[in-house]
């Protein structure tokens, strides 16, 4: 366990963020490698896999319910020096992850084709996306468990083991992709089914590696079968924090669905170009997202310890670092978009859409970095309802106008991107406003403009008890 209530906050962020971003980048590279080999199967396969991958955002939302709830509650417990509560939250989260994984498998097998029919442009895209989803569903189910184990380590300030496991799993996935998708070395190409199967095998390996790490090396939190009996009060603690954050991913899923819907009239090439562009954009957003993910547990531990001044400092330092990173990537995307997109499709129409998308939407990067930071701070404070409000506002202000515009004569694809820029900027302003209000409310008894005077043990205990009352559910 790493104590994040002491030492340089910027130092903690900069030491935790690189392993986090390394893990996320390796996952994105894996997805891009899959897309690269799938591109050889044609535009329908690319569009199908990209549209099916959007369903992963919905499942990711459910994962975030557990991940965010686990990080927030465990970080508060670590800050309070309450190891027993941290272990209880962890083990109950593991139970929930197994249940959610089983439900994902069942729902995916039933609903995959219905989903693809709702968003795909033609029958070939429906077939490709459905096939990919069915083979990819075991990976999504297993990721609930990896999410909880990684969240538990991050809450205690440990990020390197998760990154290493992710990297090894991605290497395995990359090695399997050409073999299973294109039939390298075997002569048996499974096409889009191979892309899903490669991911499922790699995630299974990741689960086994993390289990081995917890068994041999982890000491602060452990698997305890005695704590696996369902405790609904603990489930509610986790869900109260996690559900609004998970709802954010459901809103992203809905937003992506709206974009695919309005792009249907432009054909499969437009949908394929959007799918390529979003994956590349996601890759260049990873460093700023990693900064935010590193800052969340720092804010959480300090909030649990009752140090409002360090929580405020975490917000400022994370926002500054994320903004600097996003400015650099915005310049890169504006000046050399072709370099970022090279090799993902031979279709000129699809690549033209991807390049246009990347140049337009990269103007959102600074605003998106601020959104990442604000949302991570809400998680650290243990109140994620403002996250849902912020994301819901963006969906409402985007979906209604773009669907209306798509029904008007002269509708152009550029209008989709212009609306995205405007609504993301609006979301960033709202998130900053909500965070400022939340900080005033939640840190009223801790926040100080200067370092607080040294207090006695009795006063420290009272402060921690006050924070514990906020962190735990009432009643």
Task: Map the helices and strands.
Blueprint: H1 9-39, H2 43-79, H3 83-119, H4 123-155, H5 160-182, H6 192-216, H7 232-263, H8 268-304, H9 308-335, H10 337-341, H11 348-361, H12 365-381, H13 385-406, H14 413-442, H15 457-471
Q: What's the helix-strand series?
A: HHHHHHHHHHHHHHH
- How much strand? under 5%
By helix and strand content, what is the structural category? Answer: mainly alpha
Termini gap: 31 Å
What do these coordinates show?
The protein is mainly alpha-helical and 475 residues long. The chain has one domain (9-471). The chain is built from 15 helices and no strands. The protein starts with 8 loop residues before the first helix and ends with a helix.
């Amino acid at each position: 366990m790493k104590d994040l209530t002491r030492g340089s906050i910027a130092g903690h962020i900069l030491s935790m963020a690189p392993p986090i971003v390394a893990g996320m980048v390796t996952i994105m590279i894996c997805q891009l490698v899959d897309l690269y080999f799938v591109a050889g199967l044609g535009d329908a396969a690319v569009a199908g896999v990209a549209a099916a991958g959007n369903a992963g955002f919905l499942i990711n939302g459910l994962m975030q319910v557990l991940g965010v709830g686990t990080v927030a509650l465990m970080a508060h417990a670590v800050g309070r020096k309450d190891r027993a509560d941290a272990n209880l939250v962890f083990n109950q989260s593991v139970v929930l992850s197994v249940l959610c994984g089983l439900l994902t498998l069942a729902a995916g097998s039933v609903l995959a084709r219905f989903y693809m029919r709702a968003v795909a442009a033609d029958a070939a895209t429906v077939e490709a996306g459905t096939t990919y989803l069915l083979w990819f569903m075991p990976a999504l189910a297993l990721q609930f468990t990896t999410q909880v184990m990684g969240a538990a380590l991050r809450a205690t300030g440990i990020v390197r083991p998760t990154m290493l496991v992710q990297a090894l799993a991605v290497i395995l996935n990359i090695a399997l992709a050409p073999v299973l998708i294109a039939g390298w070395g075997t002569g048996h190409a499974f096409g889009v089914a191979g892309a899903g199967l490669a991911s499922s095998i790699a995630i299974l390996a990741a689960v086994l590696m993390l289990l081995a790490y917890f068994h041999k090396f982890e000491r602060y939190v452990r698997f305890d079968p005695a704590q696996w009996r369902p405790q609904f009060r603990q489930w509610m603690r986790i869900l109260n924090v996690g559900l609004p954050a998970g709802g954010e991913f459901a809103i992203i899923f809905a937003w992506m669905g709206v974009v695919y819907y309005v792009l249907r009239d432009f054909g499969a090439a437009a949908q394929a170009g959007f799918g390529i562009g979003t994956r590349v954009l996601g890759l260049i957003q990873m460093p700023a997202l990693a900064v935010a993910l590193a800052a969340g547990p720092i804010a959480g531990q300090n909030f649990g310890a009752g140090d409002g001044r360090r929580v405020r400092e975490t917000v400022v330092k994370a926002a500054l670092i994320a903004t600097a990173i996003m400015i650099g990537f915005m310049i890169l995307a504006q000046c050399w978009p072709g370099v970022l997109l090279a090799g993902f499709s031979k279709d000129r129409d699809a690549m033209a859409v991807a390049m246009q998308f990347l140049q337009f939407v990269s103007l959102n990067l600074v605003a998106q970095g601020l959104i990442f930071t604000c949302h991570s701070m809400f998680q650290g404070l243990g109140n994620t309802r403002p996250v849902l409000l912020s994301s819901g506002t963006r969906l409402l202000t985007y979906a209604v106008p773009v669907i209306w515009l798509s029904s008007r004569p002269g509708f152009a694809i550029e209008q989709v991107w212009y609306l995205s820029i405007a609504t993301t900027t609006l979301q960033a302003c709202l998130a900053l406003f909500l965070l400022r209000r939340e900080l005033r409310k939640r840190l009223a008894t801790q926040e100080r403009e200067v370092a607080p005077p040294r207090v006695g043990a009795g006063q420290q205990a009272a402060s921690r008890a006050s924070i514990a009352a906020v962190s735990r559910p009432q009643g």
